């Protein structure tokens, strides 16, 4: 830590530097790419470039996103992953052109996600993975255009039905959350029918008919055991000859 308890001093982004970071995507959109530049504070100068279609501020050390980010009214793609953000501004709900929002790998809690997220009616993909969410924000259930939702690596114990029932949802990633394990049944259910009681008696105590039945049953059991343990017979095919012998007999015909 620097003197005075402040965090590390990040790289200062000027307007001229930001302009040089604008790229044209394959589909002709303007992307402002300021990723991996050691930025610690949201650079206010980029608000003068609010006509860009995509903004990438990922892999920096940004802690706070200002309300003024809503000036990017044309923005369709916003990537803020891998920063130190613990809260999103309410004004993000005004960015109704957004199709893609990635805020994974930050320090977001459920309370740090504003209700105004439910105003992003056109958004297709959101990624809240690798944060500290203990419940899914109710706002997500109102986003009927969502195709992909990332909620992996959080503190979630349940997923509300409003998420799984989103009409256009194709992918829902909820891996590595502390969901409760399904409860095991208290009693073991045995599907095999068994005798309630078994009585052992000596031969001398049996009547004649009962003794004969027991002996017949024992004879059948012994016969089955002997058949099962007998070695299988080897099949004999006397009419077949080995390939080598046939070839040997016809060698003279091929010469």
From TrEMBL:
Q: Does the keyword Repeat apply?
A: yes
Which residue intervals define the domain Disease resistance R13L4/SHOC-2-like LRR in the entry?
Answer: 32-131
| Organism encoding this protein | Balaenoptera acutorostrata (Common minke whale)
The protein's name is Leucine-rich repeat-containing protein 18
* GO cellular component assignments: cytoplasm
Q: Name one Pfam family in it.
A: LRR_14
Alphabetical UniProt keywords: Leucine-rich repeat, Repeat
For this UniProt entry, which segments traverse the membrane? Answer: none
